[in-house]
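Section 5: illustrative case.
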């Protein structure tokens, strides 16, 4: 289970320290996703973001797959749990820019303000998760932690405000959510009916075997 953790202070690295860190990082990479240091001091690299979304997202066009409800040219659907996407970013890209790029890659029409980026890290057999501020730089965090995702990984989630900010959703989105809920309710109802019907048949079969007329 994830444990909430406060944000850690940012430690600024000199240009020489960044160069050494990148060399060390690249020597430990096993998936060929290395970092590149440019002459101006900006470096580029890759981060992997796991999507852990509880609510459906709204996408443009009809390229979505899975359970969905359609409205005009938009579709609301649930992303597969644990879906991981790789982004190529630079050290200047902020958390907010990473979220926007990730949503754009999936053609998501939802407001980026609905989402937050978290970092998950393992320490002393405990899993910690910390919400990143919009101004933090994910590639810097990746560089400092090294390439091992078990040491640090990124997760995209909805904002945890305690309550859903329904006013942030458009009318078509809300209508799509209602259609999805109705569909899922009917599916669950049919499953329950079949389960109890099968249970009733087994009981009647057992009763018939015990109470045979003499």
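Designed sequence:
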């Amino acid at each position: 289970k994830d444990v909430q953790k406060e944000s850690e202070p940012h430690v600024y690295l000199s240009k020489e320290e960044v160069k050494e860190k990148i060399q060390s990082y690249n020597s430990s990479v096993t998936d060929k996703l290395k970092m590149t240091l440019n002459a101006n001091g900006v470096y580029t690299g890759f981060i992997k973001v796991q999507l852990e979304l509880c609510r459906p997202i709204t996408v443009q066009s009809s390229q979505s797959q899975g359970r969905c409800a359609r409205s005009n040219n938009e579709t609301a659907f649930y992303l597969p749990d644990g879906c991981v996407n790789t982004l190529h970013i630079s050290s200047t890209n902020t958390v907010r820019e990473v979220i926007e790029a990730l949503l754009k890659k999936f053609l998501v029409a939802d407001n980026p303000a609905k989402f937050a980026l978290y970092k998950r890290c393992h320490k002393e057999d405990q899993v910690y998760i910390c919400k990143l501020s919009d101004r933090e730089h994910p590639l810097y965090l990746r560089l400092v932690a090294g390439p091992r995702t078990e040491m640090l990984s990124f997760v995209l989630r909805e904002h945890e405000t305690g309550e859903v900010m329904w006013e942030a959703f458009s009318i078509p989105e809300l209508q799509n959510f209602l259609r999805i809920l109705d569909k899922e309710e009917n599916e669950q109802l049919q499953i329950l009916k079949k389960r109890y019907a099968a249970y009733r048949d087994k009981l009647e079969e057992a009763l018939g075997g015990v109470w045979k007329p003499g």
